[in-house]
Amino acid sequence: MSSPSKSILWAQFFNPKKNKSAGTIDLLKENLLFSTLNNKELIYLSNFVYERTYEANENIFKQNDRGFGMYIITRGLIGIKQEHTGTPSDYILTLSKGEFFGELSLIDTEALRSASATAIEPCTLIGLFKPDLMEIIERKPNMGIKILLQLAQVLGQRLVETTDRISELENEKLRNK
Amino acid sequence: MKNSGISKSDVFKILFILAMTVLTFVLLAQTPSLGTAVLLSIVFSILLTPVVSAVERKGYSRSSALTVIYILLVSGLGMGAYLGSVSLISQWDEFSVSAPQYFDSTLKRLETYEQGWKDQYPFLKSVQIADSLKVFKDKTTGWFLSHGAGMLGNILTLLFLVPIISFVLLKDGRRFRKRFYELVPNRFFETTFMVSHQITASLSDYIRAKLVEALLVGIITAVGLGIIDAPYALVLAGIAGVTNIVPYVGPLFGAIPGILIVAAAPEYQHLLWPVVAIYLIANVVDTVLIFPLLVAKLVNLHPLLLIGVVMIGQEYYGLIGMLISIPIATALKVIVSEIYYFVYGQSSFTAHE
User: Which of A67, A133, B60, B116 could form a disulfide with A111 if both were Cys (CB 3.0 to 4.6 A apart)?
Assistant: First the structure.
């Protein structure tokens, strides 16, 4: 039986690509957007995503940039912030491994990023972009529909959360009066 | 902050991409046989992409879809060439024998007319139309005789290389693109991704539209020439279709062989005006219907600008320049549009899926 360290060495040096793509597939599988895809479809999807590495304090995108796709975090922390007055404010949200952001730009044509995303620490992200999603829909319509349904579910969930937050704020305002 | 400047590794990556791009272009330009093969393979793979996607939709993997299409293409083309195109091949054989004869007889007639004009108008004595055409014919024949074997060799090489390169491009094109994007620094990644996607989509649409346009013009000409029972209808329609790919002057070049033949052969002279009319109808249908509906929408450049870029292309690279000028202008438009957005923050950029 081979020791764990030996198998890691083997994977790193002798089959790095397979190891890397297996990691990507696992991560995609855990993501809500792709949770309904089967293994074959996940392998297919892994050909359409891009792995990017960011250093600490590096911007992924800035508020009002045109958005072309979404990112899933595979390593590190991402801070989301909004710059209402032109001066950088604190992070309104911190995202970690497995979480994703920027998914609205997958369906919005001239989408502008509603907030900035910055790497708080060294990060690795997986990006899926609109033209590739369109290609998946064209080449594998069943798979495309599964992703779109999940995307609709996520956006719906976000809408409910936003509505709840607005209600909370309204109630707070009324209480303060 | 990290993103306020460009790191050393980003500069290295950009320089590496630029060096590789320049090297690739130099290599392809210095070895024309490879350059032509790559260019044709790109066109061929662009044509096949929708077919491959359609087969993939049926549940096949990319490799299986490609294998099925290649088997069908090879067997279909072989059978088609043998069965369906027999008349085209026999027409071409006959045409290649009689075309020089028609040219000679036209030349003789022209010489007689020219002499008549010169006798009537002495100031035309310095004009040597028939002689110039004779020199052109001798040069062309000489060129074909000396380059014939080489050309045949090149064609055979292309027939071997183009399907292989196209197969690789269709199967692994996405992997190559991924490798390329890995080199692009983070701060330019999304923009490079969208611009290159936009350029590829525009060029693919343009090439497909031009080929469909050529096919339609060829069909209209074939039907028209067939109805009036003109000689070599299929060959002449094929020439009209292929030359139609060249903007503006293409249709004119395409009409010359047909008009020359019916003008030269006494037995076909009654067809001269009907043949001219067929070429005119095909051109009008193309200009009024096919081009605006199919090509112009995709190019989305001002007509005057189009004429300008075609003229610039012709000035520097002749016929090839005319052919590639519009796709290059389309690509430049995407880049200029992106720079405009970068500078002014307003988009003239439309998402292209």
Answer: A67
